[in-house]
Amino acid sequence: MTAIHLENLGKTFGSFTALKNMNLEIADGEFVALLGPSGCGKSTTMNMIAGMIDPSEGAIRFGDRDMRGVPMSRRGVGFVFQNYAIFTHMTVYENLAYGLRATGVAKAQRDRRVHDMAEFLHLTPLLKKPSAGLSVNILQRLAIGRSAIMEPAIFLLDEPLSNVDAAFRAVMRTELKHLQREFRQTMVYVTHDQLEAMTMADRIAVMDHGKLLQVGTPIDVYNNPSSVFVAGFLGSPGMNLVKGRSVEAGGFIRVDLGEAGMSTPLPAHLSASVPEGASVFYGFRPEHCELTDGEGLRLPVTFVERIGARTIVHMGSDGSAVKCVFDNRVPVRNGEVVSLAIDPSNVRVFDAETGAAIGGAN
Amino acid sequence: MASIAFKNVTKRFGDTVAVDNISFEIADNEFFCLFGPPLSGKTTILKLILGLERPDEGEVLIDGKPVNHVSPARRNVAMVFQNLALFPHMTAEENVRFPLVERKMSSDEIAPRVADVVEKLHIGHILHKSPAQLSGGERQRVAIARALVRDPVAYLMDDPISALDARLREETRVELKRIQHELGRTLVYVTHDQEEAMSVADRIAVLENGVIRQVGAPSDIYDNPNSAYVAGMLGAPAMNLIDLDPDRPSALGGALPLEGITVPAGATKIGIRPEDLTVGYDGGGAGKPVEVYEVEPLGGVTIVTLQSEDITLRAMVRGQPQIRPSSEVSLSVANGQACFFNGQGEALSA
Fold first, then answer.
1. What pLDDT is attached to residue B48?
2. Is residue A217 over pLDDT 70?
3. Which of A128, A259, B130, B141 places its Cα 20 to 30 Å from the Cα of B234?
4. Do A179 and A236 fall within a single domain?
5. B228 and B244: one domain?
6. Which chain B residue shows the shortest CA-CA distance from A286?
7. What are phi and psi of A150, to 5 degrees?
8. Looking at the complex, does the CB of residue A173 fall below 8 Å from at least one CB of chain B?
9. Does B195 touch chain A (CB under 8 A)?
């Protein structure tokens, strides 16, 4: 069991800065997701934790132990990659037992641990099968099991689910989370998929362009994004960000959203923080809107996407494009102009120039 | 403009029956989606439409005319490939022009046709760029433009956006739907992603082992699946399929009460969508308590995985409820929204 400390961590490749000034404390037994688009620095960070590459700046400590110069094999980390590394000439059992055998674990104990892990990952019926010929899904599950069985103090996973199919990914999300809850390793999980980060991690670290932008619990980051980037990156669809200008009316600030109309007054804590006449993004989540017969933002419906349990209604265009999520029976049609009521307590406002959130959490 | 029909078409590869006696019709201008797991026959059906494969039995018809013996080139059906294979050494414009140049058309003939598709696909501003300089979505549009410039009667797409990341896929599928709507051309689309299929298609054909299990509008299939197989294919998380308790109106050994819900005669399983499985976490509830296995917050909704005896269930709860792993909750069916299946997995109506 080990905490990970990243201190002013940086990495440059020639003139390219992959990571800059990263500070992050990952607690013992915590599940942290490094989330961001490709090129954000998440894999670079993980590779430095693993010891595969050396930092250009800063330090990595496991507990109070400085990892400078400690080779990968002596860091006590388990690693699972996007492309499963399985010995295809071995059976499932032999793959699971491989690391235990290599470290000299006695046969009886080895056998017990293999069976426990196989049971946990639903691999028991396959133990005697050769790995060659197993599906991609099963191979990735086996790769996770082979690493987890060593009970590493730190478990690093780099996009482990991006090659498996969608249905299986949903199952594996639950299993991985449960695995970590059971074994309580410190887990660092790299992904570009906000859904995986949201559903599994204790905390999410959102990264972009080599910078750590925000760290927090999934719900906290989702509800109170610190910037338009984070707001848009989390959620499916992401937060709506409508460009507008703040105006004062009767002691409260409203946002003039152009053709869509005027927002309702911002709640007191936001009215107090948003200056008048500022260029801002008016942010709200797709699930925080309702169709109304009364006053609301007026937006033309451009597309109605009915996908099972939910309907995504696309509205407006360009600077005022909005998506709202309703249940599957919502009666709207393409081309119709709807009136949208937005729950004021869930409105977020961002500075249009810097992209930073204004006013903080309510 | 073209309708496409299959009449009792079978295609075998050696001992494997890839397409097994299937019949369906795709209407002119329809966005028709072939949806199923790997090896269910989706891509073979596309090849049969294109003419890259010939049926062993049955007849493929385009616009009512049998085409079994018409060569691919003369069917005038265009394919947009999975990897959006653009020629990397050509600009976007040269890529779009290519099919016409290859047919030895004159520049005077080519120019207006290229201009037409360029306008429809909004790619005028990127024509001078090479594929490497384009985003995934832009490459997509150039690939579609290249397929359309021949003015095909129908076009086919084999999993065209599966390589894009999740966010881009969500945007691109809407764009594809818009393009098809504006072009007004028959589009046959293969995907293994249920959300994509429901989002884009006018109608979906759900396949299993070379057989079409159900054809219909996405919401019809979602609400009224004809079998447990189809029910399980659409929706994420998938529909919960649970054995009914013998001799009483409940499932899960009493943990899921079904009082007031009409169970059709012969039903052995009940199917409940995750959004229709209500989770009571404030102590009340009529049924035996069930243990929470995992809680996955998605922000707008929360997926709750439950374990009851050996059965794993998933419920989708709105918002961000305070439900904890290992706590006990009660279950009920929202508004009686449930499907029933017999021992053969066939849907039964109440």
1. 96
2. yes
3. B141
4. no
5. no
6. B300
7. -75, -5
8. yes
9. yes
* CB distance A333 to A278 below 8 Å: no
Q: Do B126 and B205 sit in the same domain of this protein?
A: yes
Nearest to A219 among B177, B237, B297 (CB): B297
pLDDT at A1: 59
Q: To the nearest whole number, what is the mean pLDDT of chain A?
A: 92
Percent of chain A with pLDDT strictly greater than 70: 98
Who's near B104: CB < 8 A, 6+ residues apart?
A: none
* Maximum alpha-carbon separation in chain A: 78
Mutate which: B296, B306, B324, vs A, most A CBs within 10 A = B296
The nearest CA of chain A is from the CA of B13 a distance in Å of 20
pLDDT digits (tens, 9 = 90+) for B98-143: 989 988 999 999 999 999 888 888 889 999 999 888 877 788 788 8
Number of domains in chain A: 2
Distance of CA A84 to the CA centre of its chain: 21
Q: What percent of chain B has pLDDT over 90?
A: 64
Nearest residue to B6 (alpha-carbon basis) of B49, B54, B56: B49
The pLDDT, as a whole number, for residue B85 is 74
pLDDT tens digits along B222-240 = 999 999 999 999 998 889 9
**Which of B184, B214, B233 is the endpoint of a domain?**
B233
Same domain, A207 and A255: no
Interface contact B320-A195, CB threshold 8 A? no
Residue in B closest to A198 by C-alpha: B298
Q: Summarize the confidence of residues A154-178 as an average pLDDT.
A: 86
Q: Two tokens at A171?
A: 């199952």
Domain count, chain B: 2
Return the number of other C-beta atoms located less than 10 Å from residue B64's C-beta: 9
pLDDT of residue B74 exceeding 80, the answer is: yes
Q: Are residues B169 and B41 both part of a single domain?
A: yes
pTM for the structure as a whole: 0.88
* Exposure of B331 in the CB half-sphere (CA atoms within 13 A): 31
- Residue A77 makes CB contacts below 8 A (sequence gap 6+) with A49, A50, A51, A152, A153, A154, A155, A156
**Tell me, what's the ipTM?**
0.86
Domain containing B327 equals 240-348
Cα A243 to Cα A88: distance, rounded to the nearest angstrom: 54
Residues of A whose CB is below 8 A from B195: 166, 307-308
CB A193 within 8 A of CB B166: yes
Phi then psi for residue A266, to 5 deg, are -70, 150
Chains A, B: CB pairs < 8 Å? 100
Residue B241 and residue A43: Cα distance in Å, rounded?
Answer: 39
Say whether B165 and A314 touch across the interface (CB within 8 A): no
Burial class (CB in 10 A: 0-12, 13-18, 19+), A83: middle
Per-residue pLDDT at A167: 75
B318 class by beta-carbon count within 10 Å (0-12 exposed, 13-18 middle, 19+ buried): exposed
3-state helix, strand, coil in chain B (%, to 5): 30, 35, 40
Looking up residue B255, the CATH number of its domain turns out to be 2.40.50.140
Within 8 A of A180 by CB-CB distance, chain B residues are: none
Given an 8 Å threshold on Cβ–Cβ distance, is B235 in contact with A328? no
Does residue B250 contact residue B256 with C-beta atoms inside 8 Å? yes
Specify the pLDDT at position A274: 93
In this structure, the dihedral spanned by the alpha carbons of residues B301, B305, B306 and B307, taken in order and rounded to 10 degrees, is: 180
